[in-house]
Write a structure and sequence with these properties.
Blueprint: H1 3-24, H2 37-41, H3 55-87
Helix pairs in contact: 1-3
Length: 88
Amino acid sequence: MDKNKMMAVSGAGGFVAGAFIGYLYRPPAFLTGQLPFKHVISRGTTLKGFEQIYIQVAQTSFNYLIMGGLIGAMLGVVAVILYQNKAK
């Protein structure tokens, strides 16, 4: 596998793994616990009526998901760089 393809695959895999971990560690909403994925991925736009008080929690949960994904992607790319430098 060439260098660029290995970095892309590792970065994508790291993003997915990091986003999953970020989703698991999302903050709970008051009295209801963690919000479902449907509300998190839409940043709370699917919340209706009284549930709209949880929009801020949904937005924060989405931010956790994205930040986890970005950190995971960075770690995946760094791992490939370190592996390739060690192999030389």
